Amino acid sequence: MSREKKNREMEIATTSAIPEEEEEDEKKKKKKKAKPRSMIKVIAICGSLRKTSMNRGLIRSAIEICEEGIDGMKIEEVEIHLLPFINPDLEMESEVKFPPAVEAFRRRVHGADAFLFAFPEYNYSLPAPLKNAIDWASRPPNVMAGKTAAMVSAAGGSGGNRSQAHLRQIGVFLDLHFINKPEMFIKAHQPPKKFDSHGNLVDAHIKENLKSLLLSLQSFTLRLHPKLLSSS
Q: GO terms for molecular function, please (predicted)?
């Protein structure tokens, strides 16, 4: 083979290799530019103080679902049983304005990106402990404002639809943004069995519905706060 022919073949081979190299470089550049999604921090609040509360069981199940099947979202439960009854007289004119339990609660709430409320229905409305916690969170400055939220209820009768309607109404003043769908009103005492004696959720269908609700909350939170799509 002549030297001239060899040179032409080498030239062709080199030219054909360039697009592949450029494509590889382009992929590397895109990989460098792509930023990992930030973790959406969800604070869960149970409106029932019972140790074997079914609503607390819903929160435990939601935490497990996130850990096992939803990337980019983490749920942490915050306790409200230590909060005193709402009373502005307990507020102080100092750097630490609120009683210690309230201050700790408000810090956790302030650090959240979204909320998951789980609560029964008492007398067609919210349980007092949940309303009390919300009232403390809304004291100036309101630490719930501008954030997203979802709610679930396990209760007798209607499954909690009236109490959820009341929380949506309260959310208007709080400037909380609730997802609209899916809704979850669990008629806890009707067959088939949905919870065990410890309040743990055992119904596979409800677990699937709960996952759908959490995915909806994640999607809505990212739409409302696009900065969470990637880390800073």
A: FMN binding; NAD(P)H dehydrogenase (quinone) activity
